[in-house]
Design brief:
4% strand; 91 residues; mainly alpha
């Protein structure tokens, strides 16, 4: 019973409902950002798996760029992360 009540540390729920750990996040230094990878990093930060500072350092992102990802998800869901459709989602 204690096993059922134990919180799984080092794991958060990813954008597709699968668990995320540090081991299955995008590779450190990733430069090709598809929607899924951006959403996984945002979920990791929001879930406390990574700090904002750690995510920015790990992926060489500015805080402004990362915050833009969060804003895009909050406003438009995952489709808001499409770089080819940025102007469509800008307000």
């Amino acid at each position: 019973m204690a096993r059922q009540n134990r919180r799984l540390e080092g794991m958060v729920m990813g954008p597709d409902g699968d668990p995320l750990t540090l081991d299955n996040l995008p590779a450190k230094g990733t430069t090709r950002w598809v929607i899924r990878r951006k959403a996984e990093v945002v979920a990791a930060v929001r879930g406390g798996l990574l700090t904002l500072e750690a995510a920015c350092e790990r992926y060489n992102l500015s805080q402004e760029e990362f915050e833009a990802w969060i804003k895009a998800i909050d406003r438009h869901g995952l489709p808001g992360l499409r770089t080819t459709r940025v102007q469509h989602y800008r307000m």
